[in-house]
Amino acid sequence: FLLAADEKYAADGIIPFPVTCVTFGGPYIGGYNFRQAFDYVEESGKLQYLRVANQGDAVATLPFISLNGGAYNHVGMQLKMHSDGEECWNTITHPKLVDWGTRAWMNSLVRNLNP
Length: 115
Description:
This is Fungal lipase-type domain-containing protein. GO terms for molecular function: phospholipase A1 activity. By secondary structure, this protein is of the alpha/beta class. It has 4 helices and 4 strands, in the order ααβαβββα.
C-alpha cells in the first residue's frame, strides 16, 4: 500500500503499476481513515486488492474494534466462497458497491460462525 501511494516510485518507474495484492482469510486491517486513503490510491489506478474468504471463516470478521475504540473497515474487492455441501458459489463485493447494513451482516461474526 505504501509503495503504491508514494509518488516517488511512480515517477521513477521502480514499481510496476498497479500494485496487485491477493489475500486469503485475512482479518480487518484498518479504520475509517485507512480506508479513505486506500480508496484514493485504488481509484487512482495504482493499487488492486482482492480479499478471498470462505463462508464460515470467523478470522475474516475480526477484530471488531481498534484499541482507540474505532471500528475496523475492510478494503478492496471481496470474493467470498460459499458451499452448502453439494453446491459451491461465490459473491463479489466492494465496500463502495454494497450498502453498510448488508456489508456488516455479510462480514459479521455471527453469520460466519461454522456450524
